[in-house]
Amino acid sequence: MRQKVLATKAVYTAQTGIVVAEEIGDILKEFCVFDKVVAVTVDNAANMDVAIKRLQFVKLGCFAHTLNLAAQSLYSSSLVAQWTAKIRAIIVWMKRSSMAKVVLREKQDVLKGDFTKAEHFIRLMRVLYTCTLCVSTEKSPSAGQILPIIQKLEKHFAPLNGDTAFVADLKNRVWRNLSARYKNEDIRFFLEEATALDPRFKNKMVNNAAVWERIKGKLLANSEESAPAAVHDHAEEVSVTQGEGNQEGLKTDSEEEEENQPPPSKQSKKSPLEELFAEEDAMKRTSQEGSRSQGAGAMVVPVDMETLLREQGGLLGGAPAAGGEEGLCVVGVFGKSGLQPGSLKESLMDTLLDRHVFPTFASSLPGAGGCGLQVLHEPERRVLYVLMSSACDSRELLRTCAAMSSGSAHTDAHELWKSLEREHCLHLLYMFSVCHVMLLVHPNHTFDVTYDRLFRAVDALRQKVLPLLRAAIKDCPVSKEWKLNCRPCPPRLLFVFHMNGTLKVSTGPDTGANPEKPKKHSPRRRLQHALEDQIYRIFRKSRVLTNQSSNCVFTVPVNQAFVYVVPGPEEDPVGSVLGQLQAQCALGEQQSVLGPKRYHLMRRSTMAPTPPEVGSGPFSGAPQDCSLKEFLWQHIELVLSKKGFDDSVGRNPQPSHLELPSFSKWLQVASRLHQVMLGPLEDEHKELLLKVQNQLKVLEGFLDADAKFSDSRCQKALPLAHSAYQSNLPHNYTSTVHKNQLAQALRVYSQHARGVAFQRYALQLHDDCYKFWSSGHQLCEERSLSDQHCVHKFHLLPQPGEKPDLDHNPPILQHNSRGRSTSSCNCGRKQATREDPFDLQAANYDFYKALEEKCCGKLEHLDFPVFESSTADPAPASEPEQQGPAEGTGPEDKSHTPGEAQSLSLALSLGHSTDSLEHFGEGDSTEAPRHKRPSLLDRQPSTVEYLAGMMHSGCPKGLLPKFSSWSLLKLGPSKLYNCHVGLEQPSFLPGSSFLLPWDLVIRSRSEEEGLSQSLDSSGLWPVPNKSVSGKRGGPGGPGRSRRRDDVARLYVGFCYEDSRGRRFISSGPDKILKVLGPGGAKEPASRVLSTDMPLYMPSPSQGRGLKLHLAQLSHLYILVPDAPLEVTLSPQVQPGPPPCPLFHPEQPEVVLPPDGLWVLRFPFAFATERGPCFPPKDGQPLSDYRLLRGVLRACPVPPPHP
């Protein structure tokens, strides 16, 4: 094919997918290549998708366009939009403003965050730009480079723990857009096969074997189909090939050589694809050169330790290297860095290597705020450098702080720092185990004494894990001394300090020194000697260094320098700039003012400074200081020459071992120790790694000084808090008192306790106080139905048939609040003393049932329906979920609530509830219904589930309680009551035992039948100067023509009873009936029947104390005459403020038979399935506790028809 474009056609119709498919198909058929198309690359338009799908080709979207779309997705981010707008506004302003530079110099600190974002943006998007160039600038792009580029981008845009919100948002948006591409399985297989066939990327596939199996299958299938055609065309191809080969064969070889060797000027420039995969290619070359050149590799760039150990797996698993391999010296570099833009360790490495290896503004080392190791190999010098980055570096420390959330507690930050210190110690121990020389770098010229604590911790950890390390390397091809000591030699520790500009040596005449007398050593040399003496004394005193070097974690030389101070800048750059500015802005006295001023200034600024005279300086006679490279190489040469370190002192110094391993041997030992000490978890070394991790607890005593101080401080504060809790405590007390005393103890504790252990000991104080309270000092938390606490200490309730046992632990007995009251029986004729009830059945049923056997058992009763079980074990109905929490259920701590399975009194013993009903759901009724309420027994009552509480307006229909809390009985016929004498029952106040009369008119047959007379109508009240309608002799004409009507008189009495048994009848909501003369009560009953009656009234006989005594509505007496009347009883009680439910009997409406004195006994206590309704407390209005009007309705019964 001579041209890459087969044909060009113009489409004048709509460019739909069908039209495009027809045009492409015609061109392919014209050139007879329709069945030879492998894939089609088009843009990402929808019509192209339809066209390629119609042609049944594999469609590969334009990869450069895909990368462009992924980059464009960033602009939808609000963070990027705000940042770019701010940068754009600054740039426009700087172009237009003449004072921009001056203002920018003043305001540039404000824009530091924006410039940081710009650096992150460029660093992140540069790879995407390079990927675009790989596709766009390639002369012959292939589909085989798509998957490797995507894998590279996936690794680059993977989120890290230390990423800022800005960087995380950028990565998320770009990769979310890219990951949605190439999801089709056919396209994925095609790209994998193309990558495998591309010689540049054939080894970058994860499932390489599966891909080659597919390629093999396709090749076999194609060979079988094309075998006959290949035989036919072979002869023609041979002739053509030979003819062309004779003419062009010689030319091809020379042209290929010229093409493969680019000009010298272009050899240094890498293509975008080479730049993108530079790190992978370097690792590949390192592996190849290492296997070729005696197991060692030339690492052009620093390589992560884990990557090195993983990529060199072939070396690790093979046989040991030959004996002719040259050994290498391993140098470890660690330490701290200041706030400089670049890392001190990396800049020192550039100095030692005599080349710029690390970038000035390099990204953080692996670890995301933790520790990371990088390896750099110099094969020509036989030195391997191991560079450690940790949280002691300012760059990693900033990443760690940025990764922490803003709301993290002080304890969380301390725990994070402790974990980083443990990781730092473990990495240091690893470096001390694989290195010959250790180089400690410090950002200033003063020794940090915390290193003494750190090295003692590493030494203690080494003694603990040494047996584990021996077991890990027992199979490695190294000497016995190495296997015994788990290191090639006792590493020598060297120190490198930096001058920070604070030390200045003045050379002027005012210094007082004699300039003619030369100094033996320079100030920097004297500083190095002083630091050496200080470091040696500190380490000897703390026994980090001992006489025998083999027993130490590291050594320092005895007769060699081990401290080097890197000289700082000769002059302060800021002061130099200010001095030059001052010199440029002022003329000297001896200068001539003739001529242009600019000429003089420029000439002065360009004049070279006069060199100092030889011997004029104060240090002219001092020996020259060595460089950093010379300082380090005098120690490395001892290792390479196999002389070793003779650092032991004392009378009988023992020689230390030294082994110079080859690269392959060192790699095997380093890999095995890395797996055991630093992970990851693997099956064969998992057990050893876990054992090493368990030994890290030995570091706590060395590293966590803050925690030790905090523990000591909190332990002293704990007894003071215990004393504060136990002060002024009764023997038994409730949870409220316990919580108040605990709060007081915590206040005392917080005044003295400090540090990270504060929370831990505060929890211990909480547990100690609870244990003290629960061990014999806990008061029963159960409250009676009158809202009184049980006075017993914590106890159990007896089971049915079980007797109380005070000797049991905890004791078994009933609740008792020591409250007693006097109450009347169902009929009111007999009174008895009762205990303060804790159970609804004891309050409303058991007490009255016991008195009924002695008094009113033979009277006529109207029984209310109750639950009748059809099973042997009936269950109470579940509580409705929509009900709100009851009163008393607050946010109390339930963590120490005793077990409910033991029927403990503190936790709803035997189903008793301690909650009140002052808070109810919104759906409960708040007002009394004006109409006849619907029956709750519309359906058949349940015989499986019963109602746990009493019948009320919020309970589900069809459920009945196991007992009735109401009682309705007949005292006798109507003639039993004498209106002149009143009720002949005990404990009534004088003149308050009379029932109130209620007159009702019974109309004749000629009147409207079925009318019921309203209780609040005006016909109930006599009108002055007007006789009753229908009476003889009454005024008015129609009175004579009507028949005489009958008037029926009923009697009603609302009886109240206080806790002392005193009773009275109420004649109104706030009035006690008092009849002084004969004739009985004169006040009509219509007043009390037409209004809400209070459930509680102040008792007329108050005690000596200030507490208000209340009398409760206990009975309702109704005298029904022998008359054609239908009297309906429908009581509804609201025992609390809204939205308290309305309580009613199990039969809401009861028709009372005529000719009888009936008495309705009200419940002593009210409770639902969620808890009791407590009586009103002091200050609560009594009007919220009421019996709703409409309790009685009466209407005449028409006479039967003849």
UniProtKB/TrEMBL annotation:
Gene Ontology biological process terms from the UniProt entry: nuclear-transcribed mRNA catabolic process, nonsense-mediated decay
Organism: Knipowitschia caucasica
Tagged with keyword Isomerase: no
Compositionally biased intervals (Polar residues): 814-826
Superkingdom of the organism of origin: Eukaryota
Region (Disordered), start-end ranges: 226-273, 506-526, 800-831, 868-902, 915-938, 1013-1043
Pfam families: Smg8_Smg9
Protein name, entry field: Nonsense-mediated mRNA decay factor SMG8
Record family assignment: Belongs to the SMG8 family.
Record's function text: Involved in nonsense-mediated decay (NMD) of mRNAs containing premature stop codons.
Keywords: Nonsense-mediated mRNA decay
